[in-house]
Model the fold of this input.
Amino acid sequence: MKIALVGITGKIGSQNALEAKKRGHVVTGISRRAAPASGELASFPIVIADIFDPRALAPAAEIGPGEKKGKFRVGARNLIADASGHSRISYGDYADAYVSEIETGRYPKEIATATY
Done:
């Protein structure tokens, strides 16, 4: 699949790009400014553009660095939280959920959330 990814130079977008590439997709990045892409991102073509980003998958209330566990929950319409009331996910697991949603289209025209 060919994917145009908004925000490829950011913390979340970069992980989404790497996850999509790992799964065999061709990724073109879209960024608001010419930020230097380094390391693993240097191989992605990047287009500079202003664009509205209609995300199909919103991250948990707390998103940040951390171990990619490979297990998370996804649901639509409501923020998902654990038994303690926390809603969190790592950048890597969010990227996994984000690319999975692109591939499956499980929540068309809805806002879904991914969390542990």
